[in-house]
Amino acid sequence: MSEWTIGIIGGSGLYEMEALEEAQWFAVDTPWGPPSDELLIGRIAGVRFMFLPRHGRGHRIPPSEVNARANIDALKRAGCTDVLAISAIGSLREELAPGRFVVVDQFIDRTVARPSSFFGPGLVAHVSMADPVCPRLSALAATAGEAAGASVARGATYLAMEGPQFSSRAESHMYRAWGCDVIGMTAMPEAKLAREAELPYALVGMVTDYDGWRGRGEHVEVAAIIAQLMANAETGRRLVVELARALPPERSPSPIDTALDAAIITAPGARDPAMLAKLDAIGRRVFG
């Protein structure tokens, strides 16, 4: 049993957490370069939280340039035990209207220009992504969203696109045919990297638009998205407060805490010392 330390990766429209008590910004250096911003660390209802603005304060960083490796490393390095991502998403289903919250349980990764692993030549690992989110944290987040007044859909497949452009209408129809429910630009490789870092990960998506599939001359516009983001953001902040209140007093172990036990394939004698040094935070438990 241990104490919870929840990392909140806040997406568009969610750059700060007023509910944090004794909040302080801390800079964290990583071997993967600088994270998107400093970490805002404090407590809510006695629970330790670390808030990281995914795009940087002021939304300075486009999706393809978010340094997800540095972000996850910084959270792990600072003592985070679990990660909740809160992100703006587009809807690929009529029933998931703008304003709804969606707790994602599956991903299809269509990103192409982003480093997607902490591992590589000299140290190879293959983590399982069959079930890419933490069911415990996802359920807690869904319940917290409902307590915060959100209409929450539990379970959805998220299509991660490269961006920064929005989908063509043909692409949007294709993603629907694949069985995708929502679409966004930031969950991958973030979720993959969290699994490699042995951090249970959950994603709450805040629907801002219907993507491009509905036709009738409709298309995605930034002004409409920003307006919906502002409407969603306060509910998102309340969700975090409700999550803090609902967490069990002690954090029991998660199977994800030991995800690397069955993932490392490189023999000990063949492991690159330079790679081991870069993995000082991510692989501390398994490499010592």
CATH topology annotation:
Rossmann fold
- Please provide the ordered H/E string of secondary-structure elements: EEEEHEEEHEEHEHEHHH
Q: What is the share of helical residues?
A: 25-40%
Number-wise, the strands total 11
Task: Give the averaged pLDDT, no decimals.
Answer: 93
Ranges where pLDDT stays below 50 over 5 or more residues in a row are none
Quick recap of the structure?
This protein has seven helices and eleven strands. The protein is an alpha/beta fold and 288 residues long. The protein has a single domain (5-287), classed as Rossmann fold.
Describe the protein in words.
This protein has helices spanning 68-77, 135-147, 169-177, 190-196, 222-246, 273-278, 284-287, and strands spanning 5-10, 21-26, 39-44, 47-53, 82-91, 101-103, 106-109, 152-154, 157-160, 182-184, 201-209. By secondary structure, it is of the alpha/beta class. It has a single domain (5-287), classed as Nucleoside phosphorylase domain (Rossmann fold, 3-Layer(aba) Sandwich). Strands 1, 2, 3, 4, 5, 6, 7, 8, 9, 10 and 11 form an 11-stranded mixed β-sheet that branches. Helix 3 (169-177) links the parallel strand 9 and strand 10 (182-184). Helix 2 (135-147) packs across helix 5. The chain is globular. The protein starts with a strand and ends with a helix. The model has no long low-confidence stretch (mean pLDDT 93).
